[in-house]
Amino acid sequence: NAGVMQNPRHLVRRRGQEARLRCSPMKGHSHVYWYRQLPEEGLKFMVYLQKENIIDESGMPKERFSAEFPKEGPSILRIQQVVRGDSAAYFCASSVTGVVGTDTQYFGPGTRLTVL
Amino acid sequence: GENVEQHPSTLSVQEGDSAVIKCTYSDSASNYFPWYKQELGKRPQLIIDIRSNVGEKKDQRIAVTLNKTAKHFSLHITETQPEDSAVYFCAAKHNYGQNFVFGPGTRLSVLP
User: Fold this and answer.
1) Among B42, B46, B102, whose Cβ lies nearest the Cβ of A42?
2) Distance separating alpha carbons of residues B5 and B3, to the nearest angstrom
3) What is the pLDDT of residues B29-58, one digit of tens each?
4) Which of A59, B10, B36, B88 is at a distance of 20 to 30 A from A91, taking alpha carbons?
């Protein structure tokens, strides 16, 4: 059973470009969470999605950031017009459901975004 | 909303000694408390978790205790080894909350 997959592992963008980060959950998991981690800091929740549905996006900046989890394919976190402050590690996690007992989250390896 | 604090922020112990990391949470409705270990440049990995219907859980050298009245839970690592050196994060979640709130992390260094 493959774990949570993320790609690319490293992404370099210049200011003003777009960044697309992909996350494939573990097999059998239909819930995906995105977190941002700045160097030497903790994990900050960004957005929680189920297939074709955003459940909670309270941690995601209103501008430039968007996320989706289509019926087919990976979840995508999209950052438009990147700025240097967007440089961070972005982790995706997945769980079977959000219900007690099946809500344990397992993390992917992360995408390290560097904005030049 | 939920707020999770974690202490200490850094912890150094001699190999073979015990390490204890404590987290407090603010929302009494929280009922699931996982601990993650993150080595440098790696993903957070779940090492142990506890739900609010139990007070203690143990897995080999790692144990977690939960005090619901005081709203705190602790990670205990016994007989520490150099490979235990990492950043440890606690988190809290409740049934009607859809996401975890993480503590700021504790950097544990096990000195040989």
Assistant:
1) B102
2) 7
3) 888 999 999 999 899 999 999 988 789 999
4) B10
